[in-house]
Design a protein that fits this description.
There is one protein chain. By secondary structure, this protein is of the alpha+beta class. It has a single domain, classed as Double Stranded RNA Binding Domain. It is built from two helices and four strands. Strands 1-2-3-4 form a four-stranded mixed beta sheet, with helices on one face. Helix 1 packs parallel to helix 2. The radius of gyration is 14 Å and the shape is elongated.
């Protein structure tokens, strides 16, 4: 198994928020044993008073799934937990990659 390639582009968040977003990604990878998938998080402050959060993942060739990137996006306000938004988007994207698996809102 090849290690995953992780790309994080985080701007306008506090150091604590950045660390929490990275921790959410690492926990997600461990939880689903996705150490060989490519993962991306982009979180940036937007005006007024909000954040743009994007996540992406590409299944590994060993997974047997199509190598098509799966992306999810959300806008959250400053009262929201950005790391929780990252975790939720990762879960939605992961479930979308799994044939027959329902997404959390299903």
């Amino acid at each position: 198994m090849m290690p995953s390639r992780i790309n994080t582009q985080i701007g306008g968040l506090s150091q604590r928020q950045q660390n929490c977003c990275r921790a959410a990604l690492n926990l997600f990878i461990k939880k689903h044993e996705l150490g060989d998938w490519d993962m991306t998080i982009e979180a940036h402050e937007t005006l007024p008073m909000g954040y743009s959060v994007k996540v992406g993942m590409t299944p590994s060739t060993e997974s047997g799934l199509p190598r098509s990137p799966i992306k999810e996006f959300a806008e959250v306000d400053t009262s929201a937990d950005v790391a929780a938004a990252v975790d939720r988007l990762l879960e939605v994207a992961y479930r979308a990659s799994q044939p027959g698996m329902k997404t959390p809102e299903s």
